[in-house]
Amino acid sequence: MEQGVLEINDCGLRVFSGTVEVLESPGIAVIEPRSIHVGTAAQMRARSHPTQVNNQFWHRLSLESLKSENLRCRHHADLAYCHLKEICELCDMPDELVVAVPGNFTREQLALLLGVLKESGIHTVGLVDTATACTGNLSPAGVQLHVELQLHQTLVSRIEVNQRATVTAAEAIADAGLHHFQEAWARVFTDAFVMQCRFDPLHSAGSEQQLYDLMPQWVNRAMQQGEVLAELDDRTAKATLRQLQDATTPILSRVRAMIENLEESTSVKFISHRWTEIPGGIQLAQRMYLLPRDCIAQSISRRWKELHSDTPALRLINSVSALPESEVTVQVDYPSETGATHLLYGHRALAAHQPLFVFWHEDKFQVTPTPPEHPAATVTNHAGRLALRVDAGVCLMLNGEEITAPINLNAGDKIGIANRHDAITAISVEHYET
Fold it and tell me: Dihedrals φ, ψ of 350, to 5°?
């Protein structure tokens, strides 16, 4: 029988066949009198039909009544059912599924979810807390954190690891979800178009929909290049990475405060892949480990027998056997006490107040604040932390190890290329007053 995973996260419900992701569908619905659009189809209509949008039905899963002319939409659970049925129609569902759920779902929501899954015809053989599943095969002993981005909130789970990995707390940070980041970015781009082109993208539903459709590409380009020329309706406006970061600083500050409240000095923060799409997201904390996109499926696949249940009465599993310390491969070094402020190459030290770009020119390393045509890596500054992000297809080394994910820089870190002596050094420049 084919085994798979269904991850419940309203940023995007994901279906895995084995460990291969086959579908992602955002938790959005557009409710018309005679039809209900869900997932990507709803996302493409959401800004054109703002009064008919519901993106709360997973976040507030319940039998709470909704005001709607559509008889198929009595409450949030009806929309969850429509979403699951749509997912079943869009892909071949595995014969058996383990469902991964957020750690802050209540008992009532879990019971309702199981009922909706059954009505949808999805054969569920296990129910597991997402943070537990993701970290059980990775965490060293101690108190660790899992930081998950959802559509309307960020969820920080505290996991105690010894012989078992057990979630002991799951704290939600309200108004700190993907939706709130998107609203902040939309204000940046709207202001840019108004100031530079005298054009308000929000003046019509059509142009507003285009703005939100194109915005993920713009944000990604700004993260790679330090700025972006956004094009909309034959108009072009420039926005910088710093503007996007500044717009979301209050959100990230609340997330950092919760992390600091729950962590211990040796805690590793396991952050989901979704944070790589947020400017400043990979700089949330020190001692971070970026989880790969397929982490949830890989983890569940490895411990399928432990999570599988032969009885229809499923219980939520929030404690799993941990790997022996000798088998844990995740290594997160303690950061140096001094954070980096500049990049030093040769006799030049460049302050990273704005994005800096690493690239090759005439077979030599170069560092510049001006976006080159083909950057190898970008260094950004957010709230005093420098982070290094390598472009796809580029192989760089940090302190002799290949860089496989975005990483924070500390004073003394060396960026280089395998089998070459050239290196760029991250340094800290201190100012003394007399």
Answer: -105, 125
Domain boundaries, the chain: 1-138+292-311, 178-244, 342-427
Tokens at 395, concatenated: 């192989």
Long-range pairs for 362-367: beta carbons < 8 A, 24 or more residues apart: 364/422, 365/417, 365/422, 365/423, 365/424, 367/343, 367/424
* Amino acid letter for position 381: N
Confirm if 47 and 35 have CB atoms less than 8 A apart: no
**β-strands 269-271, 288-290 pairing:** parallel
Cα 43-49-53 angle, rounded to 5 deg: 60
CATH number of 1-138+292-311: 3.30.420.40
- How high is the mean pLDDT in each 10-residue block of the chain (434 residues)? 96 97 98 95 94 96 92 95 97 96 96 97 97 90 96 98 94 98 98 96 94 96 89 94 92 95 93 93 84 94 94 93 81 56 84 85 82 85 79 80 80 82 80 46
CB contact at 8 A, 367 and 348: yes
Note the pTM of the prediction, 2 decimals: 0.82
